[in-house]
Amino acid sequence: MIHEVLAIRHVHFEDLGSLELVLGERGRPVRYLDVGFARIEAPNPVAPSLMVVLGGPISATDDARYPTLVPLLSMLEKRIAAGLPTLGICLGAQLIARALGARVYRAAQTELGWTPLTLSEAGRLSPLRHLDGAQTSMLHWHGDTFDLPAGATHLASTPACENQAFSWGQHVLALQCHPEIRADRFEPWLIGNAGEIAAEGIDVRELRAETARFGPGLEEAAQRMFAEWLDQVEKKA
Fold first, then answer.
1. Which of 51, 113, 182, 219 has the largest CB neighbor count within 10 A?
2. Which fold has domain 5-236?
3. Which residue in the list 14, 111, 180, 219 is annotated as catalytic?
């Protein structure tokens, strides 16, 4: 049974979003560890029932510039080895891939905006079935990508990114995309990433409008996906 949730947050507006609503409905409070405001080494990595590593604008391999990456990677390695429920979103997914021995590297292009997911056969049989591109679009915001780790199950892709989601065993889920986004809390994303949006030549007004259009549907689909995944990992616990 999941009773303690630890979320590692790199940027304040990149939180659990709509997924936190699912945990709240189940009476599972979330404790955030904000990188830079608390020692990343402080929590016992195997104590929380569920650990989530959220997104951020840094590279998952830039250990020299960001010394919090190495201890966070160690936490993930220990949790995965212990068979404990672990979820990674964007940067978190890249770190999970790295913890499993896969290569993380610069993608051929930055993927920023809304594109539906294409699910693999395994993806259609998993909780990600709720995120199928036939049902909802998906927000993407990343410049790096990763190889599929050995032993992982490929779940989803887009034309720009082959490895959008994978599972490893029954307890690890990694999502390169952003199913957690909430349309009514999207403005801080636009303000906090104004430089990158401009550099990519993206019209912030169009991105805002697309999020207003697709966001509410994704919120519902993502909550169904997350609830089903929680049910599965709790049964295995």
1. 51
2. Rossmann fold (3.40.50)
3. 180
